[in-house]
Design goal:
Layout (H helix, E strand, L loop, with lengths): L2 H6 L11 H20 L5 H28 L5 H40 L35 H24 L3 H31 L8 H33 L9 H26 L1
Helix pairs in contact: 2-3, 4-7, 4-8, 5-6, 5-8, 6-7, 7-8
Length: about 290
Amino acid sequence: MDIREHHAAGQYFVPAPSRWPALGAAALFCLGLGAALAVNGVGWSGWLLLAGGLALLRMLFGWFGDVIGENQQGRYQGQESMSFRWGMGWFIFSEVMLFGAFFGVLFWLRLVALPTLGSLDYKWLYPDFSPSWPLLTAPQAMVSYQAMEAWGLPALNTLILLSSGATLTWAHWGLLQGRRRQLQRGLLFTFSLGGLFLVLQAIEYHHAWTTQHLTLSAGAYGMTFYMLTGLHGLHVLLGSIILLVVWLRVLRGHFDHQHHFAFEAAAWYWHFVDVVWLLLFVLVYWL
């Protein structure tokens, strides 16, 4: 039975058993263990991180290649496309829950923990405690830190991500109208802006760590700052890689105005990343 007969019979395409999930799990294990060992100063942790990173790249290239090949062979039709859409929707929902948990930590610290510890009930335990945000380092500490300013690199990065959302929408219009050059340029601008965002965030981190002494050990403020912005930066990196893959597929002539779910999935993910950054800018940097 060929592909057309396969779909005409109402059958759902089920891929053959794959080694990529097992390789991906092993890669993530190596990366997680290597990161934990690196934080604790274990010398060979770098090799474990390198092995995990290379294995993850091999998994991504192999798995992406298999899915793209199956799509180009016409194996994915209406039923499979609907499954992909539901899968991407639930994936983004899980990401919303993940960031919601981390934002919940921030809200709990600022709206519950600080007022409680600063109340009269705890004044005799912590007489010098000031319930203000960001929490200042104790006076007896050798090094104090400075809070991050919103107007500077964070504001510039906000403008960059908003611009990337606009260029991605422009690329989507080009796809729907059959303008391939507009589609290519829009995608190129979008993931290039994502890369610029990551470079500026790295510069910001270096300045915060070395000049402002804002480290992971700088109390609740340093922990929540790096936890939220670092997790978002990881998502920007992942989104940029996805957009790069989509752009390379566009250069090879993939997608048209009717069949372009991979582009739509990348766009959903990227707009989600944009919205999360707006919340981060307001709640972490500004307020």
